[in-house]
Amino acid sequence: MSQPVTPRTPHFVEFVALIASLMALGALGIDSMLPALPVIGQDLGVTVHNHLQWIVSIYFLGMGFGQLFFGVMSDWLGRKRVLIGGVILYVVFGLIAAFSQNFTFLLILRLCQGLAVATTGVVTRSIIRDLYSGPQMAKVMSISFVVFLLVPILAPSLGQVVLLVWPWRAIFLIMAALGALTAIWAWIRLPETMNPADRHRPDISHIRRVAFFVVTEPSSIFYSFAITFLIGGLLAYVALMPQIFADVFHKPHLMAIIFAVCAATMGAASALNASLVVKLGVKRISHSALTGYIVVTAIHLAWAAAGKETLVSFTLLQALTMGLMSLSTSNFSAVAMEKVGHVAGTAASLQGVITTVGAAVVSGLIGQGWTGHIAWLPGAALGCGLIAISLIAIAEKGRLYDRN
Q1: Which of 293-323 are b and which e, b meaning 16 or more Cβ less than 10 Å from the residue's Cβ?
Q2: Contacts of 258 (CB under 8 A, 6+ apart)
Q3: Model's pTM, two decimal places?
């Protein structure tokens, strides 16, 4: 499919940059908070350190549930107005959170902020699906993901810099400001990509039909569940970062730079995928990457369990793990969406609920099981990888390495 020609359609490079910037708002709400978690805990009187992980997990949970609403609404009202409306709500809740004086109230606001920013995930995927399909869709997603990953690379450092000058509340103000700028950019430059003839009012029977199709079409449901476990393992790592660097390595000041190094491998993997996916095939690349993910996490688990873990080994093995996960999930998303193009908005939202809410639950279980031993993290990641490859094997009837 080709991009519709309208006077306001941006050039391909600007389109990818805009989509990536919109997607990045969700990640910004997670990664910029990491350095601030201990400070927030002290300021708001949180005595159980594991509870601070909820600031990340509940936001991600909101992102999951919000996708159902915004995806359905985008199939009715069109992509653009729903996308921008969600970003505006994200800005509003960020501004309110900046003045929160209670941990419970902050968690409620984080849930609401996650619900709002869900639009930047589900609607952008629908926009891409409106314009592209097959390997081209995977390529666009991969290129967008490379730009998108500047946020996890830079956001923790941004959070640390902010804390050197201002209180943690300023992070929410910066989030709101960036959200407002992105909303203005999208309003001016992003066209409406959905054909008015394809719009339909939301109704229970339609959602039921789409949901039935999404959960019974093998590539849709099994690949979505595979993404769920891989993202769950990643989110657990993100939420545990402050505790790992403070309690295990005793070097909290290095968290931002190590996080950036690990996130950079995700960007490199996505760039590699964009250049190879058309030639080698979506499934061959992603299935091979998932196999590598399992091998690396098994090695990491054995190394950590033997008591040999150092900051250097952790960085190297975790960077490889994240790169291989990126190479898998970016393609899994394309496979999951491939056969649901006729109901892209609602289908993307349902898949998003499955993957995001499921990942929040998986990461929450992993995080609350943390007792201070570093082997727990690669062990949990290995378990997630084994479950994911089992799901993919079911979907593909055992043919994991065919060229397709």
Answers
A1: bbebbbbbbebbeeeebeeeebbbbbbbbbb
A2: 245, 311, 314, 315
A3: 0.72
Could you list the pLDDT tens digit for every one of the 404 residues in the chain?
A: 444 434 356 777 788 788 888 888 988 888 788 788 889 999 998 887 778 888 988 998 888 888 778 877 887 888 888 999 999 999 999 999 999 999 999 999 999 999 999 888 878 877 877 777 666 666 666 666 665 556 666 666 777 788 888 999 999 999 999 999 999 999 988 888 777 777 777 777 877 887 888 788 888 889 889 999 998 898 888 888 888 888 889 888 888 788 878 878 887 887 787 777 667 777 888 888 999 999 999 999 999 999 999 999 999 999 999 999 988 887 887 787 776 666 666 777 788 788 878 888 898 889 888 888 899 999 999 999 999 999 999 988 877 665 55
CB 342 within 8 A of CB 195: no
The full set of domains in the chain, from first to last, is 12-194+202-395 (1.20.1250.20)
Q: Measure the CA–CA gap between 26 and 118, rounded to whole angstroms.
A: 7
Amino acid letter, residue 164: L
Distances 33 to 90, 158, 168, 257, 348 between C-alpha atoms, Å: 15, 9, 8, 15, 27
